[in-house]
């Protein structure tokens, strides 16, 4: 059962297994990946990530609600993969505020919702119920605003303003989600900006969270740049930015 994604080079430039937290200097990677301890740890992580428990000496998948004869065979099955795809789609659509179980050193069978600060059963039905609950919708509506340049309007509780699109809209949960999730113009503009600054050591945190801020910060050049596609692109392609190490 050789899986190389757990083999990393640590800060001391030593080869180690991230899963087992074992330095591999004096042993081959292949031998470690095939050893009993590593395989046991790998199986434990698979069970956590796929919500499989042992019940009466038998494996039981809480997502599919079936007993298992073959763990790997079930996890790779059409039924299980289909449900996991739907679960991951919910997590992605919700904005990554839901954390699926994944860490063998913090074993838990529930999904953690970071914005509600609570746990949800690790199942498709319970996750769907949670993301459509009034409490989660309210929490998500508040959480997405700083990531999308959306601000309250001074003197009004009824309106919001989107800095990215330079438009006002009504302060209703459904309309916030419609603008953030479905408005193509909003997503295109924000995606272009994020795509331009990726890997360029340019931050737009203040731009997105401060209603009066209109600049991005280029930490590479130690200078501010007007936060729009044209100016950012011009700065990134400029000699000053390009020549900075």
From TrEMBL:
Organism superkingdom: Eukaryota
Start and end residues of each U1-type domain: 12-45, 108-143, 157-193
GO MF term list: nucleic acid binding; zinc ion binding
Protein name: U1-type domain-containing protein
